[in-house]
Design brief:
By secondary structure, the protein is α+β, with helices and mostly antiparallel strands. The protein contains 12 helices and 41 strands. Among the domains are: 114-416, TIM Barrel; 511-607, Immunoglobulin-like; 622-700, Immunoglobulin-like (Sandwich). The longest helix is centred in the middle third of the chain and has 16 residues, at 287-302.
Length: 707
């Protein structure tokens, strides 16, 4: 199969081996209120290796049955069954190295957390005034979009000196003069949920250590046996008093009113327990089992209804105790910070929403990130459905950056199709969605390169879509219908940018191709949907946010044109204002509710004049060979052109290109190739005035000229 570019070779690697497991009780929960009843844990489709295109990462939302699935995974049995009948038992435990695997318990937290974290703007200089400022802003501007959690990070604790940086016994009253209980109460008063950061296994205050003799790892000479980032001292998991110490600490924090705990530096704790066993009260015990005992005590104290997040790296030893876990290091502001989030996502996506909720660290959208770069970061969150906490000073954001947050809150119930590990920075992310009878794909096409534009061939075959059926294509970020095309399309990206394209099969009726509320384009907002058989009337109910213009986008059958003849919307019987926009090939209806509410709407269409432009045939086809073996086909920019081109290879349609070039990969160097290029209209109709052809053998082509 042809692909856009090659990337670094994929490598397989093992996660840390967790040796001792406690199995939680699993409670079945519904996937989504509007979906047919199906409870988790249940078998899901899966791939266990790359398909023909190694650039592709695939996820699912709803009850989908992708043709590119290689089999199914039973999360209760921990067993993969491939289409050829091959059974792979203990798949997560043995193949993926999650020794303490159990399927995620979603009964209390059916979705990953969505909200805000203080760290990546304030760092340790956070204070109560700024927490209140951001809390109040979230309550007013983002809560109705799904932001719920306000997590206070490092800086709340200690006395402001070096000995206080890991001191959980003292509140920094200079920064939080009213105390942490009052801070939690304010967050709750705004309808939000408070969370707190700490590194509970460590301690830096020597007075606290003296008050708890025998609880920390010490050398015979009385000095600390473990002085790390986690703290100057580290809890001894074998000390008889350790459970009581942890119980006292977390009883205090829950008593303050906190419902979410981000416990940091956990891989350090695991490593120290493995390496410093000789300093323990009971040397020789399994370090993973000891670590899990400390987590069990924390879980026992906070109970099942508070969210526990492991942090820093991937503490897989905490599987089935944690609700969620960070899967990478700290991000920083700027493009390198996004790359850290990317490298925390792709290798560990197979754990998300199966073992725990993955957390690639926070979403940043502020300058110096460009708007394109902020869109890339938002698309990472919106397409993967991982834990979604932003970390900017929210009142300072310009509206175009806030708009990105509005379109990805809340995190959706996305689950990976790809249950395998890879370190390749894949550039095509396909989210397959089934909701209310709509089966569609939301595809992110990324360019992670910082200086070079990129053209990517997005092939319907690779996505498991019908090759010869036109696909309606809607550009989500740019709010634009692009057309209906067979075979695939070339997607052009500037450096550090992405396109988010919605693909809906084109039929002989009008189709709802997109909604504006959320990147999932229907999953979060559509409650009900009733189209007529021919699509000329649509009615439905949608969840809308107060004063947020909500847009429905409809595309027309190939070769036909319609216009919205009437549209109404109402809340509780009260009519809402509606704006209609009719375009060649598609229409939009926009409604705005003054309150956050479920809106009933109706849209009717009538036939409209169809204007087909007959573009001329392309001219001056040429082909060149790139150093990587790919072939670049170019032709003259066409004067009489309104839309783009369609390319065939040896009689088989490859797809659409918006510009006068097409990149082909994977060709046999010695094979005879015939290229046809035809000018194209928006609905996929080809020029009636002819075509241009070119024959070549790739090995005989001249090198691509320098730009």
């Amino acid at each position: 199969m042809l692909t856009a570019v090659t990337s670094d070779a994929m490598s397989q690697f093992s996660l840390p081996q967790a040796m001792s497991c406690l199995l939680p009780t699993l409670v079945a929960v519904s996937l989504h209120a509007a979906e047919p009843a199906k409870t988790w844990p249940h078998p899901i489709p899966c791939r266990i290796a790359d398909g023909p295109n190694p650039e592709l990462m695939v996820m699912t939302l709803g009850n989908v049955a992708p043709s590119i699935a290689q089999g199914s995974f039973d999360p209760v049995k921990d067993e993969v069954t491939l289409k050829d009948g091959t059974v792979k038992p203990r798949y997560y435990q043995d193949t993926l190295g999650v020794k303490c695997y159990q399927p995620l318990d979603k009964s209390r937290f059916p979705l990953p957390p969505s909200g805000w974290c203080s760290w990546y703007y304030y760092y340790t200089r956070v204070n109560s005034s700024e927490i209140r400022l951001n809390t109040d802003w979230i309550a007013e501007h983002l809560k109705d979009f799904g932001a719920q959690w306000v997590q206070i990070d490092d800086g709340w604790q200690g006395n402001g000196t070096q000995s206080g940086i890991r001191d959980w016994s003292t509140v920094n009253t200079t920064r939080f003069p009213e105390g942490m209980a009052a801070m939690a109460a304010h967050i709750k008063s705004r309808g939000l949920t408070p969370g707190l950061w700490l590194a509970p296994h460590g301690q830096s205050n020597e007075e606290v250590v003296k008050q708890h003799p025998g609880l920390f790892l010490m050398r015979p000479d009385g000095t600390s046996a473990s002085d790390t980032w986690e703290g100057k001292f580290l809890l001894d998991p074998t000390a008889p008093g350790t459970p009581a110490y942890l119980d006292s600490l977390f009883s205090k924090l829950t008593g303050w009113g906190y419902e979410y705990f981000k416990i940091d530096g956990q891989p350090i704790v695991v490593d120290e327990y493995a390496n410093k066993g000789k300093f323990m009260k009971s040397p020789g015990s399994d370090p993973t089992a000891l670590y899990r005992q400390t987590l069990d005590q924390i879980r026992k104290t906070i109970g099942p209804d508070r969210f526990l997040l492991g942090c820093w790296g991937t503490p897989i030893e905490g599987a089935n105790i944690y609700n969620g876990s960070r899967t990478g290091g700290d991000v920083v502001l700027g493009w390198s910070g996004f790359l850290t989030a990317l490298q925390a996502t792709i290798p560990y996506m197979h754990l998300h929403n199966i073992v725990w909720y993955g957390d690639p660290d926070v979403l940043l959208v502020r300058a110096p990130l460009t708007l394109d770069q902020a869109r890339v970061w938002a698309a990472l969150q919106g397409l993967t459905g991982q834990a979604l906490l932003s970390s900017d000073r929210l009142p300072d954001l310009p509206d175009d950056r806030v708009e990105l947050l509005r379109r990805v809150y809340p995190a959706a119930d996305v689950r990976p199709l790809d249950l395998f590990q890879t370190t390749r920075n894949k550039t095509i992310w396909d989210l397959k969605i089934n909701h209310l009878g709509r089966n569609y794909d939301v595809v992110g096409v990324f360019n992670f390169q910082e200086t070079t534009a990129r053209s990517t061939y997005l092939a319907w075959d690779d996505l498991g879509l019908p090759h010869d059926q036109p696909m309606h294509v809607f550009d989500f970020w740019n709010r634009e219908y692009l057309g209906a095309f067979k075979g695939g399309m070339m997607v052009e990206n500037a450096p550090t940018s992405c396109r988010v394209l919605t693909l809906v099969p084109a039929t002989n009726r009008i189709e709802l191709v997109s909604t504006s509320r959320h990147m999932t384009q229907g999953w979060t907002d559509l409650v009900s949907l009733q189209p007529s058989a021919d699509g000329t009337t649509w009615s439905g109910r949608s969840k809308t946010v107060k004063n947020d213009p909500y847009q429905l986008r409809f595309a027309f059958p190939v070769g036909k044109c319609f216009a919205v003849s009437a549209a109404t919307a109402s809340v509780g019987g009260k009519e809402l204002p509606v704006t209609i926009r009719n375009h060649q090939g598609w229409s939009s209806v926009t409604l705005t509710s003054p309150t956050t509410a479920e809106v009933d709407w109706n849209v009717s269409f009538s036939h409209a004049e169809y204007y087909p432009f007959p573009p001329s045939a392309p001219e001056e086809l040429k082909a060149f060979r790139n150093p990587d073996g790919s072939v670049l086909v170019r032709w003259k920019d066409q004067y009489y052109l309104n839309h783009g081109y369609q390319l065939y290879l040896n009689g088989r349609i490859m797809g659409y290109s918006p510009s006068a070039s097409f990149l082909l990969n994977g060709l046999n160097p010695a094979a005879d190739c015939q290229i046809e290029v035809r000018s194209l209209w928006q609905d996929g109709a080809e020029s009636p005035t002819g075509k241009s052809t070119l024959s070549f053998q790739p090995q005989a082509l001249p090198a691509t000229p320098a730009p």
